[in-house]
Amino acid sequence: MTQELIVQGGIPLHGSVRIKGSKNAGLPIIAAALLIDEPVVIEEVPDLLDVRTMLSVIESLGAVVDYDSNEERITINPKNLQSAEPPVDHMQKMRASFLVLGPLLARYGYARLSLPGGCAIGTRPVDLHLKGFEAMGVEFSYTSGLVEGKTGFLKGADVYLDYPSVGATENLIMAAVLAKGSTTIENAASEPEIVDLAGFLNSAGAKISGAGTKTIRINGVKQLGGTKYAVIPDRIEAGTFLLSAAVTGGEIIVNNVLAAHLKPLLAKMRETGVEIEETDLSAIRVRGSLDKKCVDLKTQPYPGFPTDLQPQFMSLLAASRGTGLVTETVFENRFRHIGGLLRMGADIQVEGSRAVVQGVKKLSGAPVEASDLRGAAALVLAALSAGGTSRITGLEHLWRGYSGFEDRLRSLGANLKVETNINLTWERAAGE
Ligand code: UD1
Q1: Is 294 known to be catalytic?
Q2: d(CA 39, ligand 1 centre) in Å
Q3: What domain range is 104 assigned to?
C-alpha cells in the first residue's frame, strides 16, 4: 500500500494558518521528562510520527504516557521507570531517540542503547555527545552496534564542543542537571529549541543559565519536580508555510510564530522580492511576487540560515529570476530533493556541498519521490508552484514533521489530496 500526494499546482495561496508547537523542541523535552520524579504535562505537541516514536521510546523504559492528540497535550509519569535499555527497533527509527542517553545516565548511571545509524542527509555521528559524557565520568563500551555507558555518578565538568551540535548540547544539558557539581558547555548550540529545553527543565527546578548563548552553565540539583510547560512554535513549519505563499505568488498570514526565530529566512525572502510584514508579535504576513530574483544562501548553526529550511528555500529559487548559489555547511548530503526538482524542470548543478540554481520561468508538475523530511516539504512547495499535476511519494518522511499538512494547505486554497494506492508498485511495474 503506497500513499501519493497529488498536487494540482499553479494556485496562489490565500488565507491564514496557525503554526503548531515545535517538533525539535518537543522531542528533547519529552526525553527530559525521564529526569523528573513526578508527572509532567507538555502542551502544544503536534501529532507527528517523530513524536509518536519518542513517546514509544520512553514508554518502553516504563514511563506512563497519556497523549491527548486533539488537545496536543501529553502527560508523562516517569516515576516507575524499569529499564535503561530501549529496544533497538525504537532507536533505529529516529536519530533524536539518542536523546534519552543523557537522562538515563543521570538517573541510573547506566544505559545501553543502539547507536544511531547514518541517515539520508548524512552520516551524523554522535562523537560529541559521547566525549561530553566521558568528561562527566561515563565509560563507554561498544558491542554490535550498541553502546553501553556506565558511571558511579555523573560529575559536573567543563565541556568544549568542537562543533555547536544541537543534539550534543541537549543531551549534555539533560545529564548535567542531575550531576554532582556544575557543568559548563562551551561552543554550545544556541538554537531556540535549546532555550526551550532549558526553560522546561528550569520550570521543573533545574539551574541552567546561558541557554541561547555559546556558553551554558548548569548547576546540578538533587531532584526535579512536576511541571506544566508549553512548547514554542515550530520555526521550521512556520518557514515552510511562509515559503508556500512565496512560491505560489500568494498572500497569507502565519499566526503563532516568533519572528525573532526566523530572522535569516525573513531577510533572505525579502532579498528575493517577497514582501514580509510582522503584523504583531506573533503573526507574519507574506506576499509573494511572480517576479522573484535568485539570491545566494549558506546554511549555518543558529542564528545562521537553518539547514532545515534550505530545501524549501531552494524550491523558491528554482522558479526565480537569475542565479543563486546554495551552500550547505551543516549536513554533507542534504541535496536529495534536487533530483525531484530537476524532474519538475528546475536547472540546478551540484558540486559537493554547493548547488548552483539557475532560475527557470515556471516548474512543471511531475511524479517525484521524497527521501527525507524537509526534502519532502521542498517537493510539495515546488509542486504547488508548478504548472500541471505532481504525484509525490515517500510521504512517510513528510508525516515525521508536518501534522495535518495537506488539510492546512487545502484551507489556504491549494488543490491537493492524498491517495492510497494498493496496487501502485504492481501498476508501475506493469507500465514499464
Ligand atoms: C538537530 C535537528 C535537525 C537539524 C539539526 C541542525 C532535532 C531533533 N533535529 O539535529 O532537524 O537539522 O539539529 O540544526 O532537533 N555532528 C557530529 N558529531 C556529533 C553530533 C553532530 O559530527 O556528535 C555533526 C552532524 O553529523 C551534522 C552536524 O554536526 O553534520 C549538525 O548536527 P547536530 O547539530 O547534532 O544536529 P542534530 O541534533 O542531529
Answers
A1: no
A2: 29
A3: 23-230
